Each structure stands twice: as C-alpha cells, then as structure tokens.
Amino acid sequence: MVQKYQSPVRVYKYPFELIMAAYERRFPTCPLIPMFVGSDTMNEFKSEDGAIHVVERRCKLDVDAPRLLKKIAGVDYVYFVQKNSLNSRERTLHIEAYNETFSNRVIINEHCCYTVHPENEDWTCFEQSASLDIKSFFGFESTVEKIAMKQYTSNIKKGKEIIEYYLRQLEEEGITFVPRWTPPSITPSSETSSSSCKKQAASMAVVIPEAALKEGLSGDALSSPSAPEPVVGTPDDKLDADYIKRYLGDLTPLQESCLIRLRQWLQETHKGKIPKDEHILRFLRARDFNIDKAREIMCQSLTWRKQHQVDYILETWTPPQVLQDYYAGGWHHHDKDGRPLYVLRLGQMDTKGLVRALGEEALLRYVLSINEEGLRRCEENTKVFGRPISSWTCLVDLEGLNMRHLWRPGVKALLRIIEVVEANYPETLGRLLILRAPRVFPVLWTLVSPFIDDNTRRKFLIYAGNDYQGPGGLLDYIDKEIIPDFLSGECMCEVPEGGLVPKSLYRTAEELENEDLKLWTETIYQSASVFKGAPHEILIQIVDASSVITWDFDVCKGDIVFNIYHSKRSPQPPKKDSLGAHSITSPGGNNVQLIDKVWQLGRDYSMVESPLICKEGESVQGSHVTRWPGFYILQWKFHSMPACAASSLPRVDDVLASLQVSSHKCKVMYYTEVIGSEDFRGSMTSLESSHSGFSQLSAATTSSSQSHSSSMISRWRFC
To answer: Among its keywords, does the record have Phosphoprotein (predicted)?
Structure first.
C-alpha cells in the first residue's frame, strides 16, 4: 500500500531571499539532523544571469533502524538524490528527492516548494508532499514502513525549527537582509548574448530536465524545457499551519496530512462549497484518521443531511409548543474548557408523554436542532476564547428517573436518537456528566450502552447521589458561578422544569404515524432503483420552448449513465404485465421505464445531451435549456464495465461480479424541476427563481459548463 503525506502551508514571516540564505546553511551537513551524515554535489548549473541555480546532491543518511535489519539488508547507510532548483527571478525553490538505495524494492519520492506568500511578498510559504511504496523488503515490509514513517515525521517537526535556527544564526552575524535578484547590466558588446540569455532564462523550467543533467547541464540542452505546475495555490484552497493550530488544535504531521488529503479530495470531487474543516476533522477522529473509513461515513452523513435538509433546520423548523414547554433541556453558559454546556433534566422529563404527544420523529428532529445549535456555539466559542473548541459538554440530571422512563417506546426512541447522532455528529460530545443517578439507572445503562461508541463512552462521568459535590465532582469541570440552582448552585437556570404532559395533548397512533411520515417525507428528493436492462426514466412535458430543466441526483450505489431524450409524442404509461420489462419493482425505490422497445432512436425520439457516466458516490447537478416543446425523458441507465482491452478472455473479477445479483443493481436519489426562462438567471450557481425550492440547495454550488445545449453539470462524490 502506498503511504502518502501532504503538509499544510507553513508560513515564515521573512523574505524569500533570507529564507534561502538560511536554507543553504543546511549543507553539506546539518548537526540538527543527526541522521543526515553528509552530502556530495553531483551536478550544478547556473544560468549566465544568475537567475537559475540547480544543484543535484547525493545525501548520506544514517537511518535509526535495528542493527539486525541493517545486517540483513547489507547496508549501514541509505543514499538519497536531492535536486534543488532555485529560480531567483520567480522567487521559488523546488526540491525533489528520491531514494537511490533499494530503489528496486522501495520507492520514496518527496517534493518541497518554497514560494513567496501570495498576499505578502515579504513572507515565504513552504509546502511538501511525499509518497512511500514498499514493494518488498526481505519479509520486513511492515517494519520498514513504520521506521520510515517515524523518521520522516520526526524530521518534519524539526523542519521549521532548523530554518529558524539558521535565521537566528544569520541575525547574530548581522545579516538581516538579503537583496533580491536583479538582472545584470547590459553592455553594448554583450547585448546580443545577454538578450539571448534572458530569453532562455525566461522560458526556463524550475526543475531542469534529466536529459540536461546527463549532458552536463549545458546551455544548449536547456533551451526549451517544460515547466511543471506550481505547487502552492491561493489561501482559499490551502490550509495554513498556523490556522490549523489556532482553529483546529495541535495535530501530528500525519493527522495534518490526513485532513489536507481528505479536504483536497472533497475540493476535487465537490465543485463548490465543501464541509467545514472542523466537520471533516471530526469524522477523521471518529475513525482514528483512517481516510477511507472517514470518507465513507462522512459521505453517508452528507447525503443524509442533504436528503433531509438538516443544514436548514434551524432556519426552517420551529419546535412545537409542547417541546418548548415540557422538554427539560437547554443551553447554559460553558464549562471551564470553554465548551458550550447543555443541561438536560432527564429525570424531570415525561418521555412517555412527549412520545405520545409528538411521536418519535418530532423528538429526533428536535435533538438534531440541538446538535446544529451546538455546532454553531462551538464556532462562536472558538472565536471568543481564542482556541479551538469543537465539542460541547452535556450535564444530565437523573433525579426523578423511575420505571416510567423505561417505557418501551420511549427507550426505542432514545436508541434511535443515539444511533442517528452517533452516525452524523461524531466527536461532538466532549464530556457527559451524569448526576444523581438512581438505582434504576443501571437498567437504562444496560439497554443504551451497546449503542454508544467506545470513544464516546470514555467521556462519561457518572455520579450517584450527592457525589458530584465532593472532590472530583462538578466543580472540577464547571465554574461555581454557573452551577444551576437546582444543583445547589447560585446561577438561575432557564431550562424548562419539564413535568407531565397533559393527556389531552396525546394523539392516536394513526395521527402520530401520519405526522412522522410527513416530517421525514418533507424532502424534495425521490429514490429509484436501476437494474441491468431496466433503466429508470421520468417524463417531463415542456409547453414553452427555452424552459430550463434542472436536476440534482446522487448515485448511492453502482455506476450509471445519465441521458436526456426528446420526443414529440408522449410515451405510453408503463404496462402492468408481470412478464414485461415495464413492471420491474424494487423495495429500495421505484423503477419506471417509459421508452417503448419498438421506438427507434432518431425516429421516435432523439438524444439532446451527450451521455454522462456517473460513478458510485458522485453527486451531479445540471440544467438543460430546451429548444422545442414536447416530452423530455430523463434516464438513469445501468453502466456496464467495458471488457478488458488487453485480452479477449474475461477476467476472473468480471466473471465473479457478473454472478452477484447486487452487482446488477444501482440506486439513485434525485430531484428535478422545470424553471421558466424568465426565472432562470445565469447558470446552476444562480437559480434565483422565487418558485424554486431547488435554488436554495444549489446556491453555493459551482457548476462547470458544457457547450452542448447550454447544459451546466457539476459533480462530486458524496454518497
């Protein structure tokens, strides 16, 4: 498995030239890096005007590895080749390094870059990336990988310290300024040659081609190299090391790398607004910084949020009055660590009455709104206290808890709430203080604890009776001034006292079922299943030409091909024949086919957009400006993998996949809308129709345009 590392952007508040002067002092050896024994210059090139300076060195490293492993490998030192390409004109330094030792067994590549800060030319940015691929190593692959990662991360931590050490050394020597490179003066006798040199240097790549090095780095060999893409981008798409420390906390180099790589993946696949860095970091922490696992649960959560419009719950949903009067919970100041404090008087709350009056789904939605408010308060407290705060503290008072609270439907609702919160708000609970736990509490804990993540359970502190008033109790976590009055504190707590919900507010099981269905079907999205040989199709009738058909769909399972067709005549409704292709149904979603098998493409209907292949996990938004009235058919079709081009025989994996029923089924979640041309302004980034519920969802999404028929499509993997 290839291990990758990507650093945040490290900012030195010193000019580029001064940083370069400090950097050069690391060679030929650096006492601050004990493993760096020495280096020899292999090749060196300087352009005539001095703007380009390329040095290739062979570096000798004494890797801290077990002596037995070194003996088996037959080496005492490891050699790397490092090529530094300085462009004083552009004020950049690119560093490329790769291993020479065991290059047929281990592949190590590193790329570093020093550039001028994009917003302050007197500051310097540094960024590095690396990859490690161990093909084989005498059966010690895992050991070598651990040693390599340990050595590399320790050197990363020292990197900034080393530069700052040499900066101080320069200052002690009285060197606090290094002039920028300026072109040499031109004399009449050398005007022609200097002009030629300037043209050559202007087109010079930062990294000199290997062919040029082999030819002795001559000027003729360097006349037309190709320039690589720059590494450092704008501050909007890069994470600054100081920003991480200020707003996200102290992370190890590998944790920083996981955050940056997952964030980059989102930027590449989600062409628009991406989740906040704090949100990404929570999912990484929940899966011990395993990027693949974190990405999976985060994408599932983001799809869930999108489907149920959780992002808008605080603005669009008002809790029923029953909840406001009888739900004994609310926000109350903050704890000693600056975390928002939520107080829940569970023992005083009539859970049975709330479930009978409101239903399970209304309670769940209210808890979701509490969590959304908690995220908002964490952001505010981060700004107020000047340190990262990404979780809150919950204080649960169980005085009054009895067997009534163990009513089965109430416990079922509680377990459902725990399941949803665990899946979609990981690492948001910083500490849970359970006070005045009665004798019945162990019964409730036995029912609930299996559904709580191990990491979350470690944050629970349980106090029986008045133990919370003693050493190690409430005062260790909450200031005395804000301890609620019902816990013998001095602060008036505005949390509702709860109490029994009047039975006159109870509703029948049928009413609650309809209400629950209404709450979670208040979504603009529909689900559909797509099978091999059975696409899902929807019909849109257009009366006025130049209308705009918009769509937004997620590919939740499998790969599909998305098509748009136009027909002058309406397709026949699906037949009910159980043997016909039109009758395919699925418990996981609808499947409707409209295009009759006798229809011919080009005669009965025509394709108005190029087919779009969408992979599992992608989300697609787009629009099509219609040219003619008539009937438009949006089709999601099963995408079959192409046969292996290298051989006419099928691969084993393909055969096995074809035998699995699940491999022939895809699932999509979609929404479509037709907008009049007068309501459609610009592109998918500005669907400003007052009649459009879709416009709010797509307001922050950037779409890339396609030339055919004014269609704009953007996609990202979020399922």
So the answer is: yes
Q: Is 543 helix (H, G, I), strand (E, B) or coil?
A: coil
Distance (Å, rounded) from C-alpha 71 to C-alpha 189? 62
Q: Where does the chain hold its CATH 2.60.120.680 domain(s)?
A: 520-571+591-640+664-689
What CATH number belongs to 241-308?
1.10.8.20
CB distance 507 to 515 below 8 Å: yes
The band of 494, judged by pLDDT with boundaries at 50, 70 and 90, is: confident
Q: Report pLDDT digits (tens) over 593-619.
A: 888 888 989 888 999 989 999 887 777
At residue 53, the 3 state secondary structure works out as: strand
CB 538 within 8 A of CB 672: yes
**Statement: residue 277 has pLDDT above 50:** yes
CA angle 477, 481, 482 (to 5 degrees): 65
Segments of the chain assigned to CATH 3.30.530.20: 2-173
Task: Assess whether the previous peptide bond of 442 is cis (omega < 30° from 0).
Answer: no
pLDDT > 90? residue 305:
no
Strand stretches in 247-386, DSSP E: 329-334, 340-344
Residues in the chain: 719
Domain with CATH 3.40.525.10 in the chain: 320-504
Distance, in Å, from the CA atom of 644 to the CA atom of 652, rounded to the nearest integer, reads: 11
* CATH 1.10.8.20 domain range(s) in the chain: 241-308
Q: Supply φ then ψ for residue 494, to 5 degrees.
A: -90, 10
571: which DSSP letter?
Answer: P
pLDDT of 521 reads: 52
Count Cβ neighbours within 10 Å for each residue of 45-57 and write b for 16 or more, e otherwise. Answer: bebbbebbbbbbb
Residues near 238 by beta carbon (within 8 Å), at least 6 away in sequence: 8, 9, 127, 232
Cβ atoms of residues 397 and 436 within 8 Å: yes
The strands making up 460-464's β-sheet, listed across from edge to edge, are 329-334, 340-344, 392-397, 429-437, 460-464
3-state secondary structure of 12: strand
State the fold for domain 320-504.
Phosphatidylinositol Transfer Protein Sec14p (3.40.525)
Tokens standing for residue 19:
């940083």
The whole-angstrom separation of Cα 475 and Cα 483 is: 8
- Residue 152 sits at φ, ψ, to 5 deg, of -70, -45
Per CATH, is 2-173 categorized as 3.30.530.20? yes
Side-chain-side CA neighbours of residue 262 (13 Å) = 30
Q: Is the per-residue pLDDT at 646 higher than 70? A: no
**Does the pLDDT at position 683 exceed 60?**
no
pLDDT band at 557 (very low <50, low <70, confident <90, very high): confident
Q: What value does the mean pLDDT take over residues 704-713?
A: 35
Strand spans (E) along 106-170: 106-116, 124-134
Q: For residue 184, give the nearest of 88, 260, 258 by alpha carbon.
A: 88
The pLDDT tens digits for 9-27 are 999 999 999 999 999 998 9
CATH 2.60.120.680 is held by the domain 520-571+591-640+664-689: yes
CA atoms of 591 and 301, how far apart (whole Å): 25
Query: Which 8-state DSSP code applies to residue 687?
Result: -
For residue 686, give both structure tokens: 């500005």
The pLDDT tens digits of the residues spanning 440-492 come to 888 888 888 888 888 888 899 999 888 888 888 899 999 999 999 999 888 99
Q: Which two tokens stand for residue 60?
A: 């000798």
Nearest to 621 by CA among 684, 535, 690, 547: 684
**How does pLDDT run across 363-388, given as a tens digit for each residue?**
999 999 999 999 999 999 999 999 99
Give the residue among 120, 151, 150 at the shortest CA–CA distance from 33.
151
Any idea which of 38-47, 221-230, 429-438 has the lowest mean pLDDT?
Answer: 221-230
Question: Does residue 73 contact residue 196 with C-beta atoms inside 8 Å?
Answer: no
